[in-house]
Design brief:
The complex is a heterodimer.
Chain A (H helix, E strand, L loop, with lengths): L4 H26 L6 H28 L4 H30 L3 H11 L1 H16 L3 E3 L5 E3 L2 H26 L5 H21 L4 H20 L13 H10 L7 E7 L5 H11 L5 E6 L2 E6 L4 H18 L3 E7 L6 H9 L4
Antiparallel strand pairs in A: 1-2, 3-5, 3-6, 4-5
Helix pairs in contact in A: 1-2, 1-8, 2-3, 2-8, 3-5, 3-6, 6-7, 7-8, 10-11
Chain B lengths: L5 H25 L9 H23 L8 H30 L16 H16 L3 E3 L5 E3 L3 H25 L8 H17 L7 H21 L1
Helix pairs in contact in B: 1-2, 1-7, 2-3, 2-7, 3-4, 3-5, 5-6, 6-7
Classes of the chains: A alpha+beta, B mainly alpha.
């Protein structure tokens, strides 16, 4: 049995996308909480690629083996709609990455998505009119000139979403920019290769981007304590790296031990209220929180302790507080190991 | 550009995707400082071998039917690199799984083990293939032919790849919370790849991208263990 070489190339690309996304789906579904909207959007994006890849393969085989025309058209419809939804969800994901207010995001999306609604409507209208594309009796695919406007609009959305994402992360503190570029590049390269070569590589580019996105976010999430939103113990190694490298001049450590671990969430809210943004708090054990700072100002420490004591007393939380300030000649990394109990 | 066929493009896309995935893992790991693990060096070797598989694959496939003077040298070198790296990868994979998914105390990290002898013999045969043609050869018309030891070589490769998955399955069965992903997620791409490549004439090699997916899922599984 031999196949048309162009068809085979496209099928292999589809299969690679499908297998990659299947694995990423199984991975990500295990660590996603339903209340985490951004993660649920990501899972939907992955599922849409799986649907597109499967539909693309069925469509390809139908065309290669001269299957029923209705199946070709149906799979084409599924592909086009999934692609439009894909673009909407990419935009939604980027908006959730940048903004926090859900109402604001939904208001913005309703306006930005208007051209996409038109594309979806056009896809359905095309079923009856063939104005954008159609299949002839030999199941050969034909595009009209307006198809290129249709396609370019989609690619434009993707490029805008990628640029917004990159711009946002460029402004963010402590972001490894190389990692963000590795998310954007496959999508952009896939987009350009498909436009100029005609091979259906965009989907593989998107699939790789999603896999890299999961790597980036799983890496970042591993630093965050899921219950309180403060740093997890895994962040200690990262922080030690900053201290050892001189990027962080550790000067003081505040240790909070709460007697009841069930108060952890309430306590973390108090910590966020009291401490300025430049203090980092790590939950090293269920009942222990360590706040590190580059400041050793006695006034700041005293006020922090006073505020925490007052607020925890109001909330009925029992907490024991210890402070440590680095001596001038003491190396920051030794102070880190000694006061935080960190083992290299 | 007219020298590049559809299969050449497929090879470029799939092997390009392989290299990108492997390099992405390296860069995302670079931004993530964590304590060193015993299996880190083997995971690095796995990724390196995967890159060499993709590079060898590209050289072997793309230069297979080209009329250029240096093409014969490049394709023989490329295919030798491809098979050598792929068989090495199967050894590194089973070794990595022994260390990473150990279930009987500390796993010995030495590569000098009697059960690895078949792989070492296979690797020697691949190197000697340049003179003997035992694994593959090109005839006067530059057509690729498999040698007498091609089947045994693949048997060794599949056995060691499968051995790694056996380690994962046994490790998973001993953990009460079953936090590892199902074994089939790791295994599917690397098993599917060779089947596809052999079953469909004219198909570009799925070996490198299949292996890259398995390596990617292994990395994601490690990240997931922290999240769970």
């Amino acid at each position: 049995m031999s196949f048309n070489a162009h068809f085979l190339t496209n099928m292999e690309v589809y299969l690679a996308s499908l297998l990659l996304m299947l694995g990423v789906f199984v991975m990500s579904i295990r660590t996603t909480r339903r209340e985490d909207t951004k993660s649920m959007i990501y899972i939907t994006m992955v599922i849409l690629i799986i649907i597109q890849a499967a539909a693309g393969m069925i469509q390809g085989f139908t065309g290669e083996f001269h299957g029923p025309k209705i199946l070709m058209i149906l799979m084409d419809l599924v592909l086009e709609l999934a692609l439009d939804l894909q673009i909407l969800f990419i935009l939604l994901y980027v908006m959730y990455e940048i903004f926090e207010n859900k109402d604001y995001i939904m208001r913005r999306i309703k306006i930005y998505a208007i051209p996409l609604y038109i594309l979806v409507a056009a896809t359905f209208v095309n079923l009856f009119t063939g104005w954008i594309w159609y299949y002839d009796e030999d199941l050969n695919y034909h595009e009209n000139d307006i198809y290129y406007v249709y396609v370019l609009l989609r690619y434009f959305y993707v490029l805008v979403a990628v640029i917004l994402y990159l711009r946002y992360h460029k402004q963010k503190k402590n972001t490894n920019r190389f990692r963000i570029w590795f998310f954007a590049l496959p999508m952009v390269i896939g987009c350009l290769v498909e436009i100029f070569s005609g091979y259906l590589v965009f989907m593989l580019g998107v699939a790789i981007s999603y896999a890299v996105l999961y790597m980036i976010h799983a890496t970042d999430k591993s630093y965050i304590d899921q219950e309180t939103g403060l740093y997890s113990p895994y962040f200690l190694t990262q922080l030690y790296g900053f201290v050892e490298g001189g990027a962080y001049r550790l000067s003081s450590v505040l240790t909070f031990d709460i007697s009841d671990e069930h108060d952890a969430r309430a306590f973390s809210d108090i910590i966020r209220m009291v401490l300025p943004d430049e203090c980092d708090t790590i939950r090293t054990r269920p009942g222990r929180f360590i706040t590190v700072s580059e400041s050793s100002d006695a006034g700041y420490l005293f006020m922090t302790i006073e505020d925490v004591e007052m607020l925890t007393k109001e909330a009925g939380i029992k907490v024991k507080i210890d402070t440590a300030v680095r001596r001038i000649k003491e190396p920051p990394e030794d102070f880190f190991i000694d006061k935080i109990g960190y083992a290299r | 550009m007219s020298y590049l066929t559809d299969r050449d493009f497929a090879t470029l896309f799939l092997d390009g995707a392989t290299l990108f995935l492997i390099i992405s893992i390296a860069f995302t790991m670079k931004g993530y400082k964590r304590k060193k693990r015993d299996d880190d060096k083997y995971f690095f070797m796995l990724r390196l071998a995967n890159c060499l598989v993709a590079i060898g694959d590209m050289m072997g496939y793309i230069f297979e039917d080209k009329p250029w003077a240096f093409a014969p040298f490049v394709r023989v070198f490329g295919m030798t690199l491809f098979y050598f790296s792929f068989v090495s990868m199967s050894l590194i994979w089973v070794h990595y799984c022994r260390v990473r998914f150990k279930y009987r105390g500390v796993a010995s990290e030495s590569f000098l083990r009697p059960e690895y002898i078949p792989v070492y013999i296979t690797l020697i045969c691949i190197i000697l293939n340049v003179f003997t043609g035992w694994i593959f050869r090109y005839d006067a018309d530059s057509s690729y032919h498999r040698g007498v030891l091609f089947g045994p070589m693949y048997l060794v490769l599949i056995s060691y790849v499968g051995g790694g998955f056996v380690h994962i399955a046994k490790y998973r069965s001993r953990r009460s919370n079953k936090s590892l992903i199902p074994v089939w997620v790791y295994a599917l791409p690397i098993v599917f790849g060779p089947i596809l490549t052999f079953a469909i004439p004219g198909a570009a090699s799925f070996a490198a991208i299949g292996a890259a997916m398995t390596v990617t899922f292994t990395h994601l599984g490690t990240l997931n263990e922290v999240l769970e």
